[in-house]
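Our preliminary data section would be incomplete without showing what the modeling component actually yields. Below, a chain of 783 amino acids is followed by its predicted structure, encoded as C-alpha cells that our downstream tools consume directly.
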Amino acid sequence: MQITTVEKNVRVSDKTMLFEEVIPLGENARLWGEFDPALYTLETVLTVDAGTARLSDSHNVNFGLREIGVDGTQFTLNGQRIFLRGTLECGIFPRTGYPPTDETAWVKIIRAARSHGLNHLRFHSWCPPEAAFSAADHEGFLLQIEGPFWTNPGKGDPLDAYIYEECDRILRAYGNHPSFAFLAYGNEPGGAKHEAFLAGLVEYWKGKDPRRLYTAASGWPMIDDNQYHVTYKPRVHAATVRFKTEPYSSMSDYRDFVAQWPVPVVSHEIGQWCVFPNLEEIPKYTGPLKPRNFEIVRDLLAQQGLLAQANDFLMASGKLQTLCYKEEIEAALRTPGFGGFQLLDLHDFPGQGTALVGVLDPFWEPKGYVSPEEFRRFCGPTVPLLRMPSCVYTSDQTFRGAAEVTHFGPVPLPGVTPQWRLLDREGAVLREGSLAQQDIPQGGVIPLGEIVIGLKDLSAPAQLKIELSVGKFSNGWDLWVYPTAVDNTIPEGVHVATRLDESVHALLQEGKRVLLLPEKGTVAPARFGPVPAGFPPIFWNTFWFPSQELRTLGLLMDEHHPLFAQFPTEFHSNWQWWDLATHAQVLSLDGLPQETRPLVQVIDDWNTCRRLGLVFEVMVDGPGRLLVCGIDLQSNLDERPAARQFLHSLLAYMASDRFTPSARPSREELSTVFTEPSLLSRLGVRAVANSAQSGYEAQKAVDGDHGTFWHTQWDGDKPAPHPHWIRFDLDAPVTLKGLALLPRQDMDNGRIGRYEVFVGDDPDNLGRRAARGELKPGPEEQT
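Predicted structure:
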C-alpha cells in the first residue's frame, strides 16, 4: 500500500550531490517492534531529461520506525520495556562452511530461536550478510552485531585503525535495518590498554550513529562509556558453580549485582551445559565439515560395549541439561531490573573441542529431549515463576512458595487470577487454589502472592509437580515428599560391609546377601584418573577446559526397576538426586564383564566413554548376591531425607525375592573396582589455606585427583596478596620423608615459585622450618 508520494525538482550541478527531504508518514505510522515488525519501503526514482532522451533510475530502501533506549537498568523499544532473551550465532554452517546469503535460511534460524521463546541473536565476533538483517527485520528479532575481533586492541598497531574502519563499514552497510539494535567491538578483549581504546571507540559510535546502543565488548570491560554491559558475573558459572555447591533453590537472583550499575546488564554466555553426542546426527554432515569427532565417539562406545546405550545417554543427559537451563534462565527472569541474557547456546558449537551445549544441533534442529513448547514455559515474554527454598520435603513440613510472573509481552494483562495446582506423576490434581486477581503491568517482574500447601496428608514417598498459570501462560516445578521417618533397620539376611575383604567373600560363598558401602578412599580410580562425583554436567567441554572438576553428564537408570519401588525417580537425573550424586564415590566398571549394567549409571564424558556407576549388583563366589553402592548412605541421614529414603528402598529391594543379579564377574574382575586407601587417606590429611578460589579449595591439593588443584583467590577487584600458605593437618603424629608436589597441569598460572615448609603440633604456630627452596618451572612432579 502506497502511503505518500513526494516530488521535487532539483538542478544537478556536480557529479555527486546530496539532497535531503522530510517525508511525513502521518500520525498513524506503525512502529517496528518484537510483536509487530512493521516495515516500510522507500522507493526513490530519479528522472533526468538529457536532450531529447529521458533517463530514469530507481533505488529501494527498507526501513522500520523504532527507537531503542534505556530506562534505568532496562532496555526500551519504542518506550516500552523489553528483556533480551538471546542466544549466539558463531558462524556454524557445517554443510557449506560459510553463512547463507538467502533470507529463507535465516528465517529458519530465527524462527527456531523464536519458537524457544527468544527475541535476540548475538553474532559472536562477526557480522552476518544482508539476508540475516532482512530476515530479522521481518521477524521482529533484535541483533547484536560485533566486529570480527577477539584480540588485544589499543597498542597502536594497524589493527586499531582497522577496528574503526571495519565497524564504520558495518554501520554504513546495515545501519538502516531496525533489527540492528546493538553493536560491540567483539568478544572478550585483552591487553593492558584495551579499556581506554574501547572507551574512545564507543564514544565515537555514539556520536556517529545514535540509532542503536553500544557496548565496548561482550564479556568485559564494564566501562562508564558503555550504554549497556555484557558481563559473565551474573550467571551460574561465575566465581563458583551453584548447581555443584548448593542443592536446588529458586530463591536467588542477581538484583544486588544489577544495582551496582546505572545501565542495563546482560549476562554473558550463560549455560554451556553439555549433553552426550547425538550419533544419529552423523548423516546430516553432507558438506565440507565431516563428523570425525562423532565417529570417534561411536567407535569408543563400541569398544566399551556401550553403543546400544548412545541414545539413552543423549536423552538422559539432555533432560539434565534442560533442568539446568530452566533454573538458570528463571534466575535471570526473577531478577528485577535485569537487561537480559545471551545463551551459549541454544544450538551446538562443533569447534573448540566439540561443545554440545544446545538443545538444538548445529543445523538448528531438535535433538528430541525437549520440545519448543516445553522450553517456552520457562523462556518467553511472559513466564510464571515460583521462588521456593527447596524441592525436597518431608511429610511433616509445609510447602511455601512465592509466586511471581515476568511479563514483557506487548500489552498489560488486566484482571488476571493466577491459578495453581499440585499434581501427582499421573497428572491427578491433589490440591489447587487461586491467588488474588490483579492487573499485570508490562515490563517487569510482578509478585502474585504466596502458595502454602500442607504436606502431612499426602502419600509419601511421592514425586509431585506444582503448576502455576497466569492467564494462558503456565510453568511447573517438581517436588519430592518423603516420609518424616523410615525404618532402615538392616533386614534379616542382609549384611553390610565397607571393605571387600575375605569376610565378605566368605558371606557370599555361603549364599548371603551383602550390601557394600565402600569407605572413602577404597574405590579404584578409573582410566585417566578418579571421577569426582557431582550433579551438574560438563561445562563447554573437557578439552577446552581440562581443569574443571566434574567430567560427567548425569545419571541413567531404569525407573521401573524394583530398586526404585520406594524412591520415585525418572530415567534421568532430577533435583532429588543432587544430594545422592554429590555425596558419592563414582565406581569404575571397566574391569567387569560388559554385561554388568549398573542400576544407577553415570554417563561419562564422551571423550573417554568409561563404564561408570553409583550402584551395581553381581553374583560372585557362588550363590552370594552383592550390591555395591558408592552413594554415602551412612552420614547425617537425619538431615538428608532423599538419602534416607533411597537407603530404605535399597534395603527393601535387597530383602525381596526380586534381588537376582544376572552379572557374574570373577573375584579378580570384581577386585578391579576397589583399591587400598592411599597414604593421604590413611593419614586423614585435611588441608586449610589462607586463600582459596571457590571451586579450588585447599582440600583439592590432597584429594588424589591430578585434575583438581588448590588455587588462591583470583576473582574480585583485589586478588589475595602474597605470601600464601596451605596447612596439612593429620590425625596423629607421623614421620615424613618429604613432600611430593605435582604442579598445575593445564597451564602455568598458579604454579608455586619459592617455598618454605614448617612442621609442628600447634595449628596457630608455624613451628620449626624443615625446608625451603624454589621449585623448577614446568608440570613435572617435584619433591
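The chain has a mean pLDDT of 94. The first helix runs from residue 103 to 115. Preliminary results of this kind motivate Aim 1 of the renewal.
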